[in-house]
Design brief:
By secondary structure, this protein is α+β, with helices and mostly antiparallel strands. It has six helices and 17 strands. The protein is globular and about 50 Å long. The mean pLDDT is 90. Bound molecules: fe (ii) ion. Fe (ii) ion binds next to loops.
Length: 294
């Protein structure tokens, strides 16, 4: 598929797949680097369990936008931060600034360009991004047998801009299938904005013992039959429109499902909400990919 085909699928369905965005060497480099990061991690310093079904978001999460932090699977640590499972199998995700703070992740994505593969810049131009800004990144593990579900959502619920100009990039670092928790989409669901104006915002009453974020808007019930699975091969890039409804199921298989994902919004004539949990800091993790003149 050429980039025109990618663009037309993205506009029609709200998602598109670009196979072989990363080659095997780059995929291995990212996985190896991540394994090193976990080996160097002291679990006692990191204690937060991540769940999309209980998003109260403590200070550890709220201040992770410009750091490399670890969010564990339920039951991976005891109360004192002592590991109860293999270290490499304990983490749910790492967030949210690998794209700036880790040189391997920074180089492989933003600078990646070979004759065979599309660059990130090419893809962003093809979908009409004028001033794309990479604002967060996550390495997601979906551990074998225990990797939790990600409930149906639209990414613009979490990173709101006016007008809505958010896009997710999701790179499979292993083959993803229905069995190990591939993405599911409702095709075309990106055309009606964010259902129920659902937003996750900084809790106006934030304080000790209180959640860092709260949700506003209405919960809209979705028709589960409309979801279609999108299985992709290792190295594939999946483009995710900020308003397309998507989810992934639990990984009950014996295989992991490692993914590197990041979000970009178009700064051009766009207001980034000060109510979003993620804000630019002095660490300059809001990183322009290019400007219009390049
Ligand atoms: Fe998402």
């Amino acid at each position: 598929m050429d980039l025109e085909g990618v663009k037309s699928q993205f506009l029609k369905d709200g998602y598109a797949v670009i196979p072989n965005f990363l080659d095997d060497t780059d995929v291995s480099a990212l996985r190896h680097e991540c394994s090193n990061i976990i080996n160097d991690m002291d679990p006692a310093q990191h204690h937060t369990v991540f769940s999309t079904t209980d998003q109260t978001n403590d200070d550890y999460f709220m201040t992770s936008g410009d750091k490399i932090r670890f969010f564990f699977e339920k039951g991976a640590l005891d109360d004192k931060g002592v590991l109860q499972v293999d270290k490499q199998l304990s983490v749910n995700k790492i967030g949210h600034a690998l794209h700036i703070l880790n040189p391997v992740f920074r180089r492989k994505i933003v600078s990646n360009c070979t004759d065979e593969a599309f660059c990130l810049q090419d893809v962003l131009r093809a979908v009409g991004m004028v001033e794309p800004t990479l604002c967060q990144s996550m390495y997601i593990f979906k551990q074998p047998g225990i990797g939790g579900e990600v409930v149906p959502h639209q990414d613009s619920t979490f990173l709101h801009t006016t007008p809505l100009k958010l896009m997710g990039f999701w790179i499979a670092l292993e083959d993803t299938t229905v069995d190990n928790g591939c993405l599911w989409f409702i095709p075309g669901s990106h055309k009606d904005g964010v259902a129920g104006n659902r937003r996750m915002i900084i809790n106006p009453e934030r304080g000790p013992g209180k959640p860092g974020t709260v949700f506003t808007g209405e919960v809209v019930t979705l028709d589960d039959k409309k979801f279609v699975p999108v299985e992709v091969k290792k190295g594939s890039l999946v483009l995710i429109h900020g308003e397309v409804v998507h989810k992934s199921e639990q990984n009950l298989s014996p295989r992991s499902r490692h993914v590197y994902t990041f979000h970009v919004y178009d700064q051009h004539n766009t207001e980034y909400s000060t109510q979003n949990w993620l804000q630019a800091t002095d660490a300059k993790t809001f990183s322009p990919v290019y400007t219009t003149t390049q």
